[in-house]
Amino acid sequence: MKTMVEIALTPVSYLVLGEVARRGSATPYDLKVSVAESVGNYWSFPHAQLYKEPPRLAAAGLLAEEREAAGRRRRIFRITEAGRHRLQEWLSSADSGRTELRDLGLLKLAFADLGRPGDVARLARAQAVAHRAHLEVYRTLAALPADAMVWSLRRTLDLGLAYERLMAEFWERLGADPALVRTPPPPADSARPTRDAPSQGAAAAVGSAGDVVASPGTQVVPDDVAAEGGGVG
Predict the structure, then answer these.
(1) pLDDT in tens, 110-165
(2) Whole-number Å distance between alpha carbons of 124 and 170
(3) How many Å apart are CA 26 and CA 140, to the nearest integer?
(4) How far apart (Å, rounded) are the C-alpha atoms in residues 92 and 206?
(5) How many other CB atoms are found less than 10 A from the CB of residue 210?
């Protein structure tokens, strides 16, 4: 009788158990293809784990492993009763953990006040295009026949459609904001001019306390925005 090894399970562990249970059997390559077409759209992780995790689960008795006798000698995995029990326990748990969002565009936006005029406009246009592209992929999947995917994946896709639509509209609104091409206010430590500072001309007015104040309506339009007709979006 094979000795069971108790191991800690990660989200990728449950992902593998779920995919193998749904397919009946799977090789690591089968898992890679299946994940890329489904949960890989919103759950990012190194795909090398799909080759490392099945043998680890098999050693713990949660998967059963067979190897082809000839040919490519692929490793084929099936879920065991113990594996199915652990998967169902995880699915029945109400604790889904804290939602994680790692969006590079939002990270750049959070520090955009430290950047250059026009940076956010360019970022917003690029993000809007990317999210519209993802939205079209999801719309293509949603148009598949009803029996092309199980109901749970279909509901997950519904949320994916709503998310990509929301993000595309957010970045489009941001990119259309004319304030994104205005001259940012001067840093606090450089607000007071020196004696030798050149005249600010029409671009600035000197306040009663001697502070330089940017004149209202002054805009700096980056070259790439001007080349597109001076607009944003």
Answers:
(1) 999 899 988 999 999 999 999 999 999 999 999 999 999 999 999 999 999 999 99
(2) 9
(3) 26
(4) 67
(5) 9
Can you give the three-state secondary structure of 164-200, one letter per residue?
A: HHHHHHHHHHHHCCHHHHECCCCCHHHCCCCCCCCCC
Cβ neighbours for 41, distance < 8 A, ≥ 6 positions apart: 134, 138, 160
pTM of the complete model: 0.66
pLDDT tens, residue by residue, 20-37: 999 999 999 999 999 988
Contact 202, 215 (CB under 8 A): yes
Q: Are strands 63-67 and 75-79 parallel, antiparallel or unpaired?
A: antiparallel
What is residue 114's predicted lDDT score, i.e. its pLDDT? 93
Q: Answer whether 183's CB lies under 8 Å from 219's CB.
A: yes
DSSP labels, 74-112: -EEEEE-HHHHHHHHHHHH-S---------HHHHHHHTG
Residue 123 belongs to what H/E stretch?
helix 119-142
Judged by phi (left if over 0) then psi (alpha if -120 to 50, else beta), residue 204 lies in beta
Please state, in angstroms and rounded to a whole number, the distance separating the CA atoms of residues 170 and 218: 26
